[in-house]
Write a structure and sequence with these properties.
- The protein has 192 residues and is an alpha/beta fold.
- It has six helices and nine strands; from the N terminus they run H-H-E-H-E-E-H-E-H-E-H-E-E-E-E.
- It has helices at 2-5, 8-28, 36-45, 83-92, 112-124, 145-154, and strands at residues 30-34, 49-52, 73-77, 97-99, 128-131, 158-166, 169-170, 178-179, 185-191.
- A seven-stranded mixed beta sheet has the order 1-9-6-2-5-3-4, sandwiched between helices. Strands 7-8 form a two-stranded antiparallel sheet.
- Helix 2 (8-28) packs across helix 4 (83-92).
- The chain starts with a helix and ends with a strand.
Amino acid sequence: MKALLRSPPVQALLAFLTWAYLWLVLKTVRWSHEGLGLVEEELKLERGAIGCIWHGTIPLVVAAKPRLGGRPAKILISLAPDGEFITRAAARRGMPAIRGSKAKAGAKAKGGAAAFRECLDWLAGGGLLLLTPDGPRGPREMMAMGVARMAKLSQAPVYLIGLAARPAAEMNSWDPTRLPPPYGRGAVVRSE
């Protein structure tokens, strides 16, 4: 079953369905925004910046993208095969991915070092980077040290982006991922 789900045609279909779902959520959910002044001031500086969202709110990140003032943004996504359709869907939404994540001690490399360098280069060029400091495997809603290291080396400011929607179904996963239906209510809150 996993081989079927990871086949290129199925991944392409999943990417399209995910993109369509995200487009529908973006267009129909009534979003409120707090802390926009912080982001607007940052966007005027045209320097790199890091935006952090919890892994369980990835489907809601589409609500933050339109408020980036056209600035280029990339999202950090793991090299896991399941991340492929998410990568494709994010690219359709105008957020290309940087792929890689930290490997467990003693496990096979997952492209984390190369992705870290690519993130630093992106930030040095003035790009905006969105990432999940608790992903891809947790612990849930606990920030890993990678964000602090990246911020220190790049001198890029870090913004926390809280995302919520109501109603929202919760998937039975470690994060748990929240999936809002169309026509609900949502909030995007930004803080330094």
